[in-house]
Specification:
Helices cover 29% and strands 25% of the residues. It has one domain. The chain is an alpha+beta fold and 144 residues long. A hairpin with an 8-residue loop joins β2 and β3.
């Protein structure tokens, strides 16, 4: 049984789900994540993470600028997409802002996976914050 209502003001919902607004919210969340990470206290002050936002407000970077080699994550607003680049990683990725069928404003990856903002921030920052390398996915995980 579907819980999707038969009538919804999707136009208003879509207007409220715009890339500029979502990017601003992501930036606020990232700044909060960085403050939390720095407050954990496992880094000397010199090695704290720093957030930088370009004047146009379309790119945010997180990194440890005093360390060499410098590692950072850059998120850039590009139309309806948020692109992510992590220094030292070969493949960049992106997600598009989308209103899903449950009326939620989500970030949709190229493979169709829908992420809430906290999930997107985790995917973007986890490797930088915790030096976690993603586990490899078997070439054909459907066969056992």
């Amino acid at each position: 049984m579907s819980t999707t209502p038969q009538q919804i003001d999707w136009v208003t919902k879509q207007a409220q789900c715009n890339a500029q607004k979502v990017f601003r919210e992501l930036c606020e969340g990232i700044e909060s994540d960085v403050q939390r990470m720095n407050s954990i206290g496992q880094f000397p002050l010199r090695e704290s993470f720093v957030v930088e936002v370009n004047p146009e407000g379309t790119t945010i970077g997180v990194g440890k600028p005093h360390l060499t080699p410098r590692r950072r994550v850059l998120l850039t607003l590009d139309g309806n997409a948020v692109k992510v680049h992590l220094d030292g990683v070969e493949r960049d990725w992106q997600a598009c802002v989308s209103l899903n069928d449950q009326w939620r404003c989500v970030l949709k990856l190229d493979d169709g996976t829908e992420l809430e903002q906290w999930q997107f921030r985790k995917k973007a920052l986890e490797q930088l914050f915790f030096d976690i390398t993603p586990c490899p996915v078997p070439a054909d995980s459907s066969k056992k």
